[in-house]
Amino acid sequence: MTDGPGETAHDLVIYGSPVSPFARKAMAVCIEKGAGFDFEAVGIMPMPDWFKAISPMRRIPVLRDRSISAEGEAGTIADSSAMCAYIDRKHPEPTLYGATAYGHGRALMIEEYADTTLAMAGGLGIFRPVFFSIVQGKEPDVAKARETWANEFPPILAYLNGQLGDADFFIEDTLSIADIAVTACMMQVALVADMPLGDYPALAKHYAHMTARPSIAGPFAKAEGIVRKALPERIQLT
Fold first, then answer.
1. How confident is the model at residue 97 (pLDDT cuts 50, 70, 90)?
2. How far is the CA of 164 from the CAs of 25, 106, 205, in angstroms?
3. The GST N-terminal domain covers which part of the protein (predicted)?
C-alpha cells in the first residue's frame, strides 16, 4: 500500500477517503490478498470533474486497474462490492467469497446487509450527525446518535450476533468479505462513539479479533487520525 502513485505505482489504485467504510473494505481485501495498491484521496465537496467521469453514482470509492488504462473511464470500477469482487478475481488466493456455492451466496448476502442496513444506520444515524455537524461548525447531534443506537441498532446487532453463533467468522468458519464488510461498517460508529457490545457476545468477540487484523487496523488508523482532529473524544451512546 502506498499513498499515491510514484515510480513503483501498482496496477491497482483506490480513489476515495480513509473515512469511507467502503474504501476501507476495498483496502482490507487488497491487504488480505497481498495485492499491492495505491491510495489516492479524493475530495467530494465539491467532487472533481475527472472523478465524476468515473463515478456514475457520484460516490467514493472507485477502483482503477492501471494495467488496463491509466486515465479516463477505461479500467475503472465503481461501487465497493464490485471493486472487491474484481480484486478477488484478479488475485484469487486466498478466496474471500466462500469455498462452496452456498457459502459464496451467504457471504454476498451478509456483505449487502452490512453495506445497506448496517451502514445506513451507522452512517446516517450516528456518524454523520456527529462528525458532519462538527465539520460544519455545529454542535454534534448526540441526541440523534443515541436515538439511533437505542432504536435502530438492537435488531441489526442481534441479527449479526445470531448469524455468528459459536463461530469465529460468518461463513464456513473462515475469513470472508462478510466479516470485512460488517467490521468496516461497525467501525464507522467507532470512529465517533464508544460502542457497547456487551449484549451481543458473539459479535463483540468477532469485532475484537477482526479489528486486530492488520488489514482492518491499518486503514482504520488513518481514518481515526482524520476524525480525532475534529473530535478528540468519542461520544457516549448510552
1. very high
2. 20, 12, 10
3. 10-95
Dihedral sign from CA coordinates of 223, 227, 233, 234: negative
Residue 43's contacts (CB-CB under 8 Å, 6 or more residues apart) are none
Which architecture does CATH list for 12-90? 3-Layer(aba) Sandwich (3.40)
> Which three cell numbers, joined as nine digits, stand for 55?
463515478
Cβ–Cβ < 8 Å for 210, 171: no
Q: Are strands 76-78 and 12-16 parallel, antiparallel or unpaired?
A: unpaired
Average pLDDT, the chain: 94
Residues 6+ apart with CB under 8 A from 98: 104, 105, 106, 107, 171, 172, 176
pLDDT at 46: 84
- The kind and range of the H/E element at 81 are helix 80-90
The CATH number of domain 101-236, selected from 3.40.630.30, 1.20.1050.10, 3.50.50.60, 1.10.287.1080: 1.20.1050.10
